[in-house]
Amino acid sequence: MRVLEAKFVQGFMRMADDGWNQGWHERNGGNLTYRIKKEEAESIREELSEDGEWKEIGTAVPALAGEYFLVTGSGKYFRNVMSDPEDSIAVIELDDKGENYRICWGLVNGGRPTSELPSHLMNHEVKMQATGGKHRVIYHAHTTNVIALTFVLPLKDEVFTRELWEMATECPVVFPDGIGVVGWMVPGGREIAVATSELMKKYDVAVWAHHGMFCSGEDFDLTFGLMHTVEKSAEILVKMLSMRPDKLQTITAENFRDLAVDFKVELPERFLFEK
Ligand code: 2HA
Ligand code: ZN
């Protein structure tokens, strides 16, 4: 099968386009990676090159040795993924140590995988192990309202989780484990990758202060839906804070406990502190 005919490639492209249409991917902002299933890699084998030069990832992800990923390109625009996928995205393969990658398809006009490859791959490694292989998608977006909140809320997991849970009843059901927050760091390197992947051991969402968000999920629908839900909740919080600095009423800690029973989710008590 041709790469561009594969269902997982089409799903990846649609997700990138959806993110562009949300306004989360100005210029070359954001990146998306998908851990390809063995049978999916086999189905496109005819178009995968083995001549690419091995290059350093910049970190080690031994549990991902030999895996294939579909990735957006560094400096490439989400806006162009639909119209020019071969220029914008790539299939890469990792070596048998999980320390190097090579390009097997795509990025036909040159270039390399996303500048956030270390963060993506370290998150993939953590989430693959934490979910028994279920999680396959890592998504980074420059979500406007979440970024705005990182200037006015304390950069604490408990505060972001509780405030965003309170803004929409669906939130504790969609992200019951909560949200992690990384203070401002230089993007693109191993240090921020280590900090983010540490949070991903506990959460499916990590906020990068004054920058954006990382989400992890099983498939494109769930991962895009998670990013969308968190960002929409942040939009409501920004609107609420713009109308008045305090709440007249809200969803209470007791309400969350009742919700947890009916919706069969476990909500950690550390997010249900009395205010
Ligand atoms: O430009 O979003 O974090 C790509 C990025 C870097
Ligand atoms: Zn970014």
Automatic annotation (TrEMBL):
Active site: E116
Subcellular location, record wording: Cytoplasm
Record-linked SMART domains: Aldolase_II
Cofactor note as given: Binds 1 zinc ion per subunit.
Broadest EC class assigned to this enzyme: lyase
Cofactor: Zn(2+)
Domain Class II aldolase/adducin N-terminal: 10-238
Biological or metabolic pathway of the protein: Carbohydrate degradation; L-rhamnose degradation; glycerone phosphate from L-rhamnose: step 3/3
Binding site for Zn(2+): H140, H142, H211
Superkingdom field: Bacteria
InterPro entries per the UniProt record, alphabetical: Aldolase_class_II_sugar_metab, Aldolase_II/adducin_N, Aldolase_II/adducin_N_sf, Rhamnulose-1-P_Aldolase
EC number(s) stated in the UniProt entry for this protein: 4.1.2.19
Keywords of the record: Cytoplasm, Lyase, Metal-binding, Rhamnose metabolism, Zinc
SUPFAM superfamilies: AraD/HMP-PK domain-like
Single GO MF descriptor: rhamnulose-1-phosphate aldolase activity
Catalyzed reactions per annotation: L-rhamnulose 1-phosphate = (S)-lactaldehyde + dihydroxyacetone phosphate
The keyword Chaperone appears for this protein: no
Role description: Catalyzes the reversible cleavage of L-rhamnulose-1-phosphate to dihydroxyacetone phosphate (DHAP) and L-lactaldehyde.
Protein family (similarity comment): Belongs to the aldolase class II family. RhaD subfamily.
HAMAP family: RhaD
Matching NCBIfam families: PRK03634.1
Protein name in the entry: Rhamnulose-1-phosphate aldolase
Organism phylogeny: Bacteria, Bacillati, Bacillota, Clostridia, Lachnospirales
